[in-house]
Amino acid sequence: MSEVIEVSGDWLALREAEDARARSRVLAETTAGLLPAGPISVHDLGSGTGSMMRWLAPILPGPQTWTLHDWNAELTARAAEGAPPRDRRGEAVSIRTRTGELERLEAHDLAGASLVTASALLDVLTEAELRAIVGACVAVGAPSLLALSVTGEVELRPADPLDARISRLFNAHQQRGVDGRELLGPKAPTLVARLFARAGWRVERVRTEWRLDAGDPRLLEAWLDGWVEAAAEQSAAGTGAGRDPDLHREAAGYRRLRSAQSRRGDLSAAVAHVDLLAVPR
Ligand SMILES: C[S@@+](CC[C@H](N)C(=O)[O-])C[C@H]1O[C@@H](n2cnc3c(N)ncnc32)[C@H](O)[C@@H]1O
Prior knowledge:
Layout: H1 9-22, H2 25-34, E1 40-45, H3 51-56, E2 64-70, H4 73-79, E3 94-99, E4 115-119, H5 127-140, E5 144-157, H6 163-174, E6 177-178, E7 181-182, H7 188-198, E8 202-212, H8 217-237, H9 245-263, E9 268-279
Parallel strand pairs: 1-2, 1-4, 2-3, 4-5
Antiparallel strand pairs: 5-9, 6-7, 8-9
Helix pairs in contact: 5-7, 6-8, 8-9
């Protein structure tokens, strides 16, 4: 098994409210309209602590059983803590968990699925993992709602001359090799749409967006830390277009400036994402 890239539960908790605000409610309602009235089975891939389930369950018909797939069992265990979310009739959903690597996902892992979901997942996957997911979804024929994949576009206000360089390096970092795995980063949404289309499925896309500002300074600062640190790491380690050694030196000053703007409530960032709904024709 590849080495698990640790995602912290605290980071997932910090971003949960903004994820919920950002996901496309329209696409979720369209998804709900595709499902049978009766019991439904939803498989959430790369579920983490269950943020997608908590957001989507109240929009979907019930009774619902959610199967949460992740390679990090500590995160999925947290999904079962506390009161389960409720479906749109107000009934509690049932929750199961599955620990495993998505590259090995097969149709039988999704057997009986009425719907497959994922959120904030595709850009941290490899092409082999994406192909395995699409292959399994197509084999079971369940609509697939894949929310919040980053597209690589970021706009900060006020703008700064370093923004574009940091953005380019961050996007290169998103496509780095980790433990022999080549991550897709912002290429993932286009590839997944192409794979579903090749299988004859219809793909609907809605542009979604994280809007970070003084309303949630902790999230803005945490995102900024991750964005600048990844770019600085890439600037020294990258090759070809991903290399920019001077940026490493300039990053600390940039970070201080952005932090001061954030503390004054003067900084905002729009981080572009896309939500996709793939449906068999
Ligand atoms: C950015 S987190 C998103 C979690 C959750 N969907 C949410 O929106 O809060 C990505 C999740 O995918 C899981 N993950 C990443 N790559 C994986 C893989 N190859 N196999 C299984 N799980 C994976 C991580 O452990 C993590 O929980």
